[in-house]
Amino acid sequence: MTQLLLYLMSPTGSSSARFYVLMALGLSLILNLSNVINFAHGGFLVIGGYIAYTITPYVGFWGALLLAPPLTAIIGLAVERVLIRPLYGRDPLYSLLLTFGLAFIIEDGTRFIWGAQGKPVTIPAFLALPLSDDLFFITRYRLFMVAVVMIAVALLFLLLRYTRLGFASVPARSILRPSPHSEINVQMLRTLNFAVGIFLAGLSGVLARRTIGA
Known about the structure:
The protein has helices at residues 2-9, 17-34, 41-84, 92-114, 140-162, 172-176, 186-207. The protein is mainly alpha-helical. It has a domain at 15-126 and 184-207. Mean pLDDT is 79; it is low at 4-13.
């Protein structure tokens, strides 16, 4: 276990893997419940990063960490309401094609607003320091990222396992085709599920520290 943790926190241990796990969880949530292939999911990571970059000078890194993911989720809700919702129950190919085009729109939109170069998200100076002279390759920010990811995964597990939303307790197929007498608000469940998935993508964008240039 110690060797695994050292690998995850080392320069060769893929720093990006720590926030991409949140991306994968969000993408899996949307696909499993709504049967939507969200090809633009990575674009919401970029949006989260650019929102964090934009608001950090005003609210600081901690404020950006708290505000950027829900703001990204709000944008995701608007996309779900206008573009994704009409495709529920249809062939997943439709959602794949739509979100594939949306990914290009996000790419060109962020390039138009913020430019083609990636933008750094400033973190507090103490997080950039190494743990010690011997463990110079392990910064406090790496440990912070691991902690945030672990907390997010734990909260997601509790949400799926113990809340009345019932993401995990109701089989996906029965949600997609509920009975006429079902007490499940399928539309609300799909919407909340999409919002949670996009929230995780936005959180990933903040943790990445640097937006992706187009």
